[in-house]
Amino acid sequence: MSGFQFKQFYLAQNNCAMKVGTDGVLLGSWANIEQCKNILDVGTGTGLIALMLKQRSQKHDLIDVNISALEIDDAAFLQATENFNNSPWHNISIYYADFNEFKLDTKFDLVVSNPPYFVNSLKGPDESRNTARHTSSLSFKALIQQFCHITHDHGRLALVLPSDALDEIKLLVKAFGLYFNKLVFVYTKKNKPAKRILIEVSKNNIALEQSELCIHDNGGYSQDFINLTKDFYLKM
Fold first, then answer.
1. What is the pTM of this model?
2. Helix residue ranges, H only, the chain
3. I want to staple 187 with a disulfide (CB 3.0 to 4.6 A). Which of 5, 113, 177, 214 is the partner?
4. What's CA 118's distance to the chain center, in Å?
5. With respect to CATH, is domain 3-229 assigned 3.30.70.260?
6. CA distances, 152 to each of 28, 73, 108, 202 (Å)
């Protein structure tokens, strides 16, 4: 697939190891951008999540939101840069860097990521795809540790992860003195185990909001999924 057309922007993806997928769309639609001035998308890939957040910021008149994107793979970096330049918004900053070593004077309000999450699975011959998929390039611990360093006292971290990563994330959140603010169990169909989770973590101990989202219902998309993503998908 050479590209993906959304309602307000087009994503070329022929040079990206990881193509546009439901995980990124879920996170880009769901992450809370209220009261955010500076947002960072870690491992931006095609630039999907950064562009979704930019579109949402325009809809809600959050015109002063600064969105930055980070990518370690050179081909994906160039592709995301192309997609940003061809979008309606030309003020997304992109950095070619390893998040483990990333430093800016800016303190971020929100960090979002659809991170690599294959911990023990075998790697294939495509190194770019390995970097995008496997935690050897960015461990969950390193991701959370860096989040702590580059955000201010009210900073938040929003992630989409496989549900079986929840126990590890819980241990890391506790170890770093952080708190779960939101947790959504994502089901592809009713009566099947949750395959993904959406989480929001912060440095502030507030009441946990826990909910469920089912993507498919009665042979089509569920109304909840449509309501969440309808500003982006062409057929919704």
1. 0.90
2. 22-30, 48-59, 74-85, 127-133, 140-150, 166-175, 223-229
3. 214
4. 16
5. no
6. 22, 27, 6, 10
